[in-house]
Each structure stands twice: as structure tokens, then as C-alpha cells.
Amino acid sequence: MKINQSGARFSAIVGIGEKIKKLSEKSGKEYLFLNRGINAVCNIDLTEVVKRIDFNSNTIQVYPPNSGFPKLKGAINEVYFQGKTNNENLTISAGGMGGLDLVFQTLNVTKILLPQFYWGAYAHISTIRRVPNETYLNLPQLKNEADTLSDTAVIVCDPNNPVGNKYADEEIIETVHKLNDAGAIVIFDSPYRRVFYEREDTMFSKLAELENVIIVESFSKSVGLSGQRLAFVNSQNEEFNRELGIRILYANNGINGFAQELVYELLTSPEGRKAVDDFRLKTVHDIKLNIKFLKEHRILAEEFYKDSDPMGIFVIVNRSEQELLDNYIGSVSLSFFTKDKKEEASAYARICVSAPHEKFVTFFSRL
């Protein structure tokens, strides 16, 4: 059988997870799975929310509208954009990764620029879609070189995965404006932001005003629904949105109706908003305590946060993947997240700090 090889490979994170599971089964020891990219402080409590959903309705049992439920897009506009975008600019996608894949395959650019330390899926998707990728060092470099990037798409991920560094919003907006004015396309992928910011956050509405900005946002992190695979893409470019709709039609024929109905209830109903707020408050509380613990015990790799703050569900620690594994903690070597200085990066590991604080302290106290 002849096949077309993608050139990509399975995520190292998946492989590490399988390795830890086998070690746990063999040894009978409990491991702390901080190699994963999910909020694990607590699950969102959907008990009261699902009571509001009619599972026998056509909304769930019939093909959904191709670009998403109009009522869900209206709710997203209000909650994420303060009403300053419109339904025609929004497309519902099957998860953030699915949304990014659609964006990568739709854009006609010579290359995609990734942060120096980047989520591996960016590179793998660009490989599958045959779009070359390179890296940039920081936001000042992007500002300085903006005039040379007119045929380029630039990924801005803030707070960053894997580092978890957060730049000042003013600096992000200034950089994105300069790139937009130079004709570069900015893909703003920030799935961790709304874990920490309230509904009044205006970042998306400010960025949505710009012609060359594409916003990709998922509900995996901010409301704890990674299993539902639901996200949205926002752009004011009509041609881009039209092509995106065509590609969704022949890839998915619409996006999961139950997931859309569930997220709609979370965004609009009193029960849903309470569930989201409770989930966020508990998650952020433990994340902050975990980062504080790492700082106090000099485990946080402070050198990565000289010009930014550690914020997000990930941070970098000054321990190797193997050293953490020897202490029953799952992590991912920083070397998996960069093209440069891999040997130097292997002395560090990325961990997910969205874990119950008491358990987190129990495991890290062994170090």
C-alpha cells in the first residue's frame, strides 16, 4: 500500500505519558502526571448545567450549521469580544488544534514564525501542511523586523506554552499593530489567558479590530472541557472566513452539536456561569500557590522570566525530565520545545502547575 507520509511524528508528550503509566503499573507507585497540558486541580461541575439541555432536540440530533450555532457565536461575541465582532467573523472548530490546522492550511504564506520555545503541535501541523517554519526570539525582535515579514504568519502565544511567561498586554498590542500594518498575519493563540482573566478582559476585542489578525481560542483550558474538542476562530477577512467554512464542511460537516450546546449554557446561563467561575477560582488559586512554592524552593527556572511573569498552566523548572521522573513526577524535557540549544535545554523540564496544591507539595518536597 502506498501512502503519503506527513513527515510529522506523534507527540513526545503522549509517549512520555504512556511510559509513566507503565512505570506506575510495574512499581505500584503513584506518579504525578505533570507532563500533560490539562487543568487538573479540579473538574468543572456540570451537574446543574446539563439539566438545562434537551438531548432530544434537533439542535443536538441533526447536523449543526456549518460554521457553528448562531446563538453560540453571539454568546462568544458578548463574552470574549464585548460585542465588538460579529457572527460572520466567527467560525466554530473542533478544538484549538483543529482550528489551527484549518488556519495553517488556508493561509498562503511563505513561512510561519513560532516563538523560540513553542508548543510542538505548531511545528508538526506546519510540516503536515507543507508550510516551512522558523522561530523568533521575542516581541522586540518582531517589532524590529516587522517590515520584512509581509509574506509571513506569526504565532503569538501568551501566556506561552511551554514557558508560561506573560508579556505586558500593552507590549503585545503594540507588536501586533506593527506586524499588522506591515502586512504580516498574526495568529493569536492564547488558550490559557481566560483561565486568569475575567469576562471584562478586552484583549480579544482590541485585536479583532485589525485586518491581519486571526484569533484562535479553545474551551479546553478556560472552562476545563478538553474532552469536548470545541474552539473558535475569529477573523474579519471575508475571503479567509469563506474558505475556512468550505474546509470545515468537507472535514467535519459541522462541529459537535452537544459540545456547542453545552458551551452555550456555560457562557449564558446562571448555572453555567457559576460552574465556570467556581472552576476558574479553584484552578487559579492552586496554580498560584504551586508557582509560589517553586519560587520559594528555588525550583522555578527564574532565568526564563527576566522580562515577563510566570503565568499560565505551565512553567519551566531547573530539574531534568529524568530527575523529576526519579522522584515520581512526570514532565517533558524543554529540549522537545525548541530547535536551538537542545543539549542546554535538556537540563530543564516543562511541568503543568495546574494540579492540586497539597499533592503538588507532597511530591516536590522530595526534591
Major beta sheet summary: 7 strands, mixed
User: Helix and strand succession?
Assistant: HEHHEHEHEHEEHEHHEEHHHEEHEEHEH
CATH architecture of the largest domain: 3-Layer(aba) Sandwich
> What's the N-to-C terminus distance?
51 Å
The proportion of strand residues reads: 5-15%
Using DSSP, what is the number of strands? 14
As laid out across the biggest beta sheet, the strand order is 2-9-8-7-5-3-4
Description:
This protein is of the alpha/beta class. The protein folds into two domains: 12-44 and 275-364, Aspartate Aminotransferase, domain 1 (Alpha-Beta Complex), CATH 3.90.1150.10; 50-270, 3-Layer(aba) Sandwich (Aspartate Aminotransferase, domain 2), CATH 3.40.640. It is 42% helix and 14% strand. The chain has 15 helices and 14 strands. It has helices at residues 12-27, 58-61, 70-81, 95-106, 120-128, 139-145, 169-181, 193-196, 203-207, 238-251, 257-268, 270-296, 321-326, 342-345, 357-364; strands at residues 32-33, 90-93, 111-115, 133-136, 152-156, 165-166, 185-189, 213-218, 231-234, 309-310, 314-317, 329-330, 332-333, 349-352. The strands form four sheets. A seven-stranded mixed beta sheet has the order 2-9-8-7-5-3-4, sandwiched between helices. A three-stranded antiparallel beta sheet has the order 11-14-13. Helix 5 (120-128) links the parallel strand 3 (111-115) and strand 4 (133-136). Helix 6 (139-145) runs parallel beside helix 7. The radius of gyration is 20 Å and the shape is globular. The chain starts with 11 loop residues before the first helix and ends with a helix. The model has no long low-confidence stretch (mean pLDDT 94).
